[in-house]
Amino acid sequence: MNKLVSVIRCLVIFLLISPSSYAADLDSLVAALKGGGYVIVFRHGATDDSQKDAYPFKFDDMSAQRQLSDKGRAMARELGMALAKLGVPIGEVYTSRLNRAVETGKLIGGKDASAVDELTDGGAGSASAMANPDGKNARIGRAIRDLVNAPPKAGVNNLAVTHKTNVTDAFGKEFADIREGEALVYKTGASGPAAFVMRVQASEWIARAGI
Fold it and tell me: How many whole angstroms separate alpha carbon 52 and alpha carbon 29?
């Protein structure tokens, strides 16, 4: 009985401390981002589930792609405002070739984006792949890690906007639950792979900026 009480007490303490600890970590991250040297990997913003991708992909045909919803556009726009208000300098913006990622990248970065094949939906339009990403596309995973490992120009941070399947291919199944608009932040170095720092929800950037 005493053991159970101790466990409950520890759990309560953890739940009370954890949010403030996370907030401090996020504050530290924002301060570090001001100096550049990071790559922020976003999943695209919220989409209109009534739309479906046609496969093979038709990148120039918006009617053949699932697009951002009004909510997704608003969230991406607020994310861009939040990063600017927080003083996070943005360098290159890389995106999937699908418009929902391109639009997300432009709205967050506030500039034109470079669409690249390796960030394009590795699920190849498969509903089952999107629902159950398993990280089996090793080629795409390596290509995305190479992109993330490349240090940005001095004083800025690069953005990469992609899809759930690609995130899993690159970084593992533990990220298969990544939400629309969520970010994975990586610190690059002069040599060796980039180091994972933390996950940040879209709402957390926005709240931190007071938008």
Answer: 36
C-alpha to C-alpha distance for 82 and 206, rounded to whole angstroms: 5
Backbone dihedral angles phi then psi of residue 199, each to the nearest 5 degrees: -95, 140
- In three-state secondary structure terms, 199 is strand
Lowest mean pLDDT among 53-57, 176-180, 191-195, 205-209: 53-57
52 pLDDT band (50/70/90 cuts)?
Answer: confident
The answer to whether 40 touches 160, Cβ cutoff 8 Å, is: yes
**pTM of this structure:** 0.84
CA angle 36, 208, 92 (to 5 degrees): 30
Max Cα distance, the chain (Å): 65
Alpha carbons 142 and 156: distance in angstroms, whole number:
23
> Which among 120, 113, 208, 105 has a CA at the least distance from the CA of 164?
120
Separation of alpha carbons 183 and 199, rounded Å:
6
Residue pair 45/181 in contact (Cβ under 8 Å)? The answer is: yes
Cα 18 from chain centroid (whole Å): 22
**Backbone phi, psi, residue 90, to 5°:** -110, 130
Quote helix, strand, coil % in the chain, to nearest 5: 50, 15, 35
Report residue 31 as tokens. 């301060």
3-state secondary structure of 1: coil
CA atoms within 13 A of residue 63's CA, in its CB half-sphere: 0
